[in-house]
Amino acid sequence: VQLVESGGGLVQPGGSLRLSCAASEFTLSRYVMSWYRQAPGKERELVATISSSGTSTNVADSVKDRFTISRDNPKNMVYLQMNSLKPEDTAVYYCQAAWRFQVYWGQGTQVTVSS
Question: What is the mean pLDDT of residues 55-82?
Answer without folding.
Answer: 97
